Amino acid sequence: MTLRSVTYKRLIKPVLFHFSPDKAHAFTIRTLSIAGRIPGFARTTRRVSVRRHPELEFEWSGMHFSSPVGLGAGLDKNGQIVNMMRSLGFGFTEVGSVTAEAFKGNARPWFYRLPQTQSLVVHVGLANHGIRRIIQRLEALPRTVQKKYPTILSVARTNSQHTAETKQGIADYVHSVAIAQQSAAVQMIEINISCPNAFGGETFTTPQLLDQLLIAIDEVSVTKPLLIKMPADLTWPQTKALLTVASTHAVTGITFANLTKNREVIDFKEPLPKEVQGGLSGVPTRELSTNLLHKTAQAYGDRFVLIGLGGVFSAKDAYDKITRGAQFVELVTSLIIEGPQVVEEINAGLVDLLHRDGFTHISEAIGSKVTKTSR
Ligand SMILES: Cc1cc2nc3c(=O)[nH]c(=O)nc-3n(C[C@H](O)[C@H](O)[C@H](O)COP(=O)(O)O)c2cc1C
């Protein structure tokens, strides 16, 4: 264990975990948001805590990435802690999911901790400040952050009865995508079709409805990389049917995967009361997402850029997703459970794994364990 890991686990985590997860989350976002606005604070933190790893640096689609490891959607829903996340060693960040209209979310509690299972139960229901306000906040970030730290904006359908109908739901997505396309502070756009906690369910996870949604988004002529965030609980044939649709549209990449709802198959290390609602993150999603990602890399080759997330707690977990086809890896839950040092530990560990396997750069490891199959 490193000194920073000990400091987090022995000093900071016991204090945070003393409070309810909802209070700890709100407190952390508020504190980091204030810290990030102190001139020079994020820059100095980055300088003292983050090492350069040339083996992990790369250029893609006109952007520079200092690492393939980024923050996944859900922690920074409102774009309040972007520069602080950069100072932890992430190579990029995901903000959101944001929606066209602001929404206050489901009734509390939103979170339930399962520390032994290394998971969180999440029942937020797409709470966020609304896309316009969030984009204004991103546009106010220092120029260097906007230029050197790519941001993915995760866009979901506004969680309300008015957008539950397919036509209104599509219009709502299109409205947000058009706004994101116009902002210089957003480098990539991710369509979250898979939020398990939204009003009206996962309506865009059937091939027919996904096709309708993507036909409408094609009209916006998005020039930024466009990604789709997939559900974790579909079978491979169901996933493949969605990918086949996506492959006929202007979709650059696929993110695997969202929370899992399938509680029957999870190996719980502590009891989870039945009344706790929501999808599960962390370790219970790890194999589900890596398997779907690997099968996609096998079947679709280079057609999609792949982002792997779900249960990444260590460099080995990240490397597993990379060698199975992920160009990017993201994490959320390990940051909350293990602490901020996890990012640099994963970066450094990835470099060790590359050298162990005789690679000199991360690009050589991507898909190195993928054997191509036919669709
Ligand atoms: C607190 C929390 C909030 C989340 N909110 C969102 C969200 O708004 N949009 C989304 O696409 N995924 C959301 N997710 C899912 C994560 O992006 C990710 O798909 C999932 O948690 C698996 O990754 P992890 O094991 O690293 O957490 C959320 C996850 C957590 C833990």
Question: Could you describe the 3D structure shown?
Answer:
The chain is an alpha/beta fold and 375 residues long. It has a single domain, classed as TIM Barrel (Alpha-Beta Barrel). It contains 14 helices and 13 strands. The chain has an eight-stranded parallel beta barrel with strand order 3-4-7-8-9-10-12-13, surrounded by four helices. A three-stranded antiparallel β-sheet has the order 5-6-11. Strands 1-2 form a two-stranded antiparallel sheet. Helix 7 packs across helix 8, helix 8 runs parallel beside helix 9 and helix 11 packs across helix 13. The protein is globular, with a radius of gyration of 19 Å. 49% of the residues are buried.
Brief descriptors of the model:
41% helix, 375 residues, globular, TIM Barrel, alpha/beta, binds flavin mononucleotide, 3-stranded antiparallel sheet, 8-stranded parallel beta barrel, 14 helices
Largest sheet: 8 strands, parallel, barrel
**Helix-and-strand structural type:** alpha/beta
Strand content: 5-15%
CATH fold-type name: TIM Barrel
| Contiguous runs where pLDDT drops below 50 for at least 5 residues | none
Shape, please? globular
Give a count of the beta strands, DSSP E runs of length 2 or more.
13
The CATH architecture name reads: Alpha-Beta Barrel
SSE sequence, one letter per element: HHHEEEHEEEHHEHEHEHEEHEHEHHH
What binds here, in terms of ligands, is: flavin mononucleotide
Distance between the termini: 44 Å
